[in-house]
Write a structure and sequence with these properties.
The complex is a heterodimer of chains A (354) and B (481).
Chain A lengths: L2 E4 H11 L4 E4 L6 H13 L3 E4 L3 H13 L4 E5 L1 H17 L3 E7 L15 H5 L11 E2 L4 H18 L2 E7 H5 L1 E4 L25 E2 L6 H21 L3 E4 L6 E4 L3 H15 L4 E6 L1 E3 L3 H10 L2 E6 L5 H9 L5 E5 L8 H19 L1
Parallel strand pairs in A: 2-3, 2-4, 4-5, 5-7, 6-7, 11-12, 11-14, 14-15
Antiparallel strand pairs in A: 1-8, 6-13, 10-12
Chain B lengths: L32 H16 L5 E5 L14 E4 L5 H11 L4 E7 H7 L1 H9 L5 E6 L2 E2 L5 E2 L27 H5 L7 E6 L3 H19 L5 E6 L3 H4 L3 H12 L7 E4 L34 H4 L5 E8 L4 H14 L3 E6 L3 H4 L2 E9 L13 E4 L2 H7 L8 E5 L13 E5 L1 H7 L6 H13 L4 H10 L4 H17 L13
Parallel strand pairs in B: 1-2, 1-3, 3-4, 4-8, 7-8, 10-13, 13-14, 14-15
Antiparallel strand pairs in B: 5-6, 7-9, 10-12, 11-12
Helix pairs in contact in B: 1-6, 3-4, 10-14, 10-15, 13-14, 14-16, 15-16
Classes of the chains: A alpha/beta (354), B alpha/beta (481).
The structure holds thiamine diphosphate (TPP) and iron/sulfur cluster.
Amino acid sequence: MRQLLKGNHAVVRGAIAAGCKAYFGYPITPASEIAESASMLFPESGGVFIPAESEIGSIQMLFGAASAGVRAMTASSGPGISLMQEGISYMAGAELPGLIVNIMRAGPGLGNLGVEQGDYFQAVKGGGHGNYRTPVFAPNSVQEMCDLTMHAFDVADRYRNPVVVMADGALGQMMEPVEIPQTAPEEPDKPWAIRGDAATRKNLITSIFLEHHVQEALITKLEDKYREMEEKEVKWEEFQTEDFDIIIIAYGICSRIAREAVEMARAEGMRIGLLRPISLFPFPSKRIRQLAGKAYSILVFELSSGKMVEDVRLAVNGITPVELLRRTGGMMPTSEEIVTVLKTMERECVGNKA
Amino acid sequence: MWEIKHSKPATFYDRFERKSGDTEITHYCPGCGHGVLHKLVAEAIDDFGIQDRAILVGCVGCSIFMYYYMDVGNISSSHGRAPAVATGVKRARPEAIVFCYQGDGDLAAIGGNEILHAANRGEPITVFFVNNGIYGMTGGQMAPTTPLGQKTTTSPRGRTAQVEGPPIRMCELLSTLDGPAYIERVALTDAKHHMRARKAVRKALKNQMEGRGFSFIEVLSACPSNWKVSPKDAIQWVEKNMVPIFPLQVFRDEDKHGATPLCLRHGTSPERKIPAGPKIQESAVRGAIAGGELGEVSMKLAGFGGQGVLFSGLALAEAALREGLQVSWIPSYGPEMRGGTANCHVRISKSPIASPLINRPSSLMVFNQPSLEKFADQVLPGGLLLANSSMVTDIPDLPDIQIVRVPAYEAARDLGNVKAANMIMLGAYLEITRAVAQEAILAAFTDNGMRPNLLKANVAALEAGRRIVSGTRLQNPQLRL
Ligand SMILES: Cc1ncc(C[n+]2csc(CCOP(=O)(O)OP(=O)(O)O)c2C)c(N)n1
Ligand code: SF4
């Protein structure tokens, strides 16, 4: 049965459906409803909720629960996610699964509560110290706030790596109909965890490896995992990519606005397609490269100073011009503005075509 | 019967295979207090038969490699965070015996917040706090517990109260909290004090086995290497320089939470329990969108906070859900709300909704004058503007827009229910557009447990709104409202 839920609430429903048993969090707008809803629902669902002393505390509690082999999560927004970077790096080094949800706001610093996507590099490139990455999933609907939360737990366990679900204030606050899945994939066994019993007593969870060759071996192992993710975990969605002159690349809430722009532009006879990365790491580079081969130009639309555009340019590698449409600080281009940009680009395309 | 103690407790590994180099000896300097305390802890674990259940959350400091020696579940945490990590472990596995082992830089400096809050929650874990008044691992820098006058590599002129502040007393600090069950400070000096330390260590673990709350043992301990004294003189150094600042005593031995610590009321259970969803009745009666007479609705509702603007929008959205439609509702949020304005965007459609954000609404419902001024320009030509004319008095000329004035406050006052203005506006909107059925709105209200008298009042308000505009029809029914 569909129900109307806020994106932030859908995250909690998805987490519980996925068997998440522990939530640790500190309030921050626009993510607070996640903690509030978790404080209500986790204890009723056989789980625990702790209002942590800080985001440093939250992520370390997550580290502890993950070490003990329990599915666990936290959520926050920019300032809190920055504080968590230490813990995320340690989790990656100790190969611990866990979910971190970032409901982005505008930054740097305290910034404001507006819709922005400025945390892209921090999430996608490994925001803490050392050689690691985190898979990042970017929902664009309330349904996906639930579904990708569930999916994130599976990926985290499969690779023993923390995973980020990255949305923004709009997705967190808006309501849409959602279907909460009643079944979920089984959680894998975690023989490496420390449960406080004879079977797991000899286990060690650590991220310190004094000998250089041992540390290098760990990093190589992490790199292998990330390479495997690039083969198996890439997710994206396409809209109207059967025939196009220009392709828009946008994720999260931007992809919704972009979709409206595509519909408007198509209504005016323009040939526009849309590719929406769902996994930001691993990035759908291969598919973007394929589509770039067929496009006259590419428009990246994001709410940051231009971050995802760098990954797009790496993927496209110069074979097609890549334009950037962006706003920051909570400012939001309208679908009409996107269409205007597309029109200018199309005029140039015609030149390219000739 | 005499119990014969081997030199190594059973909880110690026979050989320290995790260590590189000599696997027979520890990595500690001669005369270091860490090894002595490790042994006391390991012996207690042996004696209580809790080796399998024991989980050590290590710290960053000289004792980081405690997992070389302790044959228990081992988790090494980042600098200062052990109490938070232990909290996560203990909540996940309440049956485990979880203990932290931390130095003074780790616990009292960088980890000050984590220890404070674990203690305050009465987290039923055991914390061993090794106070040697210095940063050992990094080579003798000043710790928050370094005595005044003491020269270290970062207080080369000697610590002063004025510049670095006086030494911090963690037992005393934590004793101000109600959370802890047991707090004691001991010292690894002479045999008598070793016995006291042994007793304290055992009690701190026993407490956890018995389900009592947070236990904290501070251990004054020697660091001859960084104090630059001989192992023998180091004992005297503790007595002379540390004991006077850090008195040895029991600070708390009383579990104010009672036997089962409050925070363990809810443990984790392995089964999946998915909370039941809300009740959702499908509406038998459907409005003009479901019926196909009207395209999609893209609407803004705006007014002051407290006027029920968001609720009106939500009622529409919930009704659309019950008519099997696609719908999105997005509110303004955060301090914007506190500033006194509230608005939301509602889209209702038969087909999937591209963007939930609306910059050119086809209908606008405004509850106050500032909202009109902010949003009127955005309404699409041919669109509908529904204004609460009790508050929106100055409506400019908008040639292409159908303007409908609803004196919602006067009408609400007539009903004896000034809070119902938003429902009166909603009733008027339904009457003009028939976008969704009133039955669907009422279904949403009852599904959400609205009390019968409130439901009755809302129905009266919806009806009153309808009456005010009765006969008014959409001038432009083709418009994708
Ligand atoms: C975030 C961070 N900052 C600094 C360090 C460096 N560091 C490692 S141990 C330590 C101090 C250890 O002193 P203490 O806690 O007193 O333990 P001891 O070595 O004396 O037993 C410091 C500053 C670190 N590992 N991590
Ligand atoms: S430096 Fe000090 S604390 Fe560290 S092992 Fe040596 S004596 Fe012990």
